[in-house]
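Blinded run. Sample ID left blank on purpose so nobody reads anything into the name before looking at the predicted structure. Input follows.
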Amino acid sequence: PTAKNFTWTLGARFVSFNNETEVDGDVKQPGNPPSYWDLSPYIRGGLSVLENENARFLLGAAAIFSYRNFDDPVDMYALTAVLQPSMMGEVFVGESKNLMFYGEVGYDWVAFRYVKNKNADYSKMMDKMDAVNASIGFRYQYKDFLAVELGLGEKLFTGLGNYFQADGTFIDFSAMVRF
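Blinded prediction complete.
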């Protein structure tokens, strides 16, 4: 939804990550990091600071709460609260403005993390993820009601002299109902 120059989004993300070696139907070697599934509801807000009829630049932030359940060890899970300041640029194509290209960059800051293992549990406050997420993509929307989005992203600056990380690349496909 949009009110003048402010826009917000409420949603959730589900991730299933499998990282293990299977030989003859048996798991021989669990990977590092271990396999998991993750459910992350979020709220995002942004303020348009520069715009014209075909483009706009937004400054915003997101609050993300994540529950991650690990496959091995079986009794391990993590609860994480992430704050993500971000910048986004959008360019609309065509007179109907149904197609939009975008570029976004955001920094993940972990405000709180609690990890429970069968042997121990621990919590951390105000930690950093050491990663900047950058993505580009496009969105097609139908009558400002339905939208689909496809993006390609990368974790940048994960260490000194490490600008790109091979396992940090991700593809994002989203379908949205807008009100």
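Unblinding after everyone has recorded impressions. Residues 133 and 155 are 5 Å apart (CA to CA).
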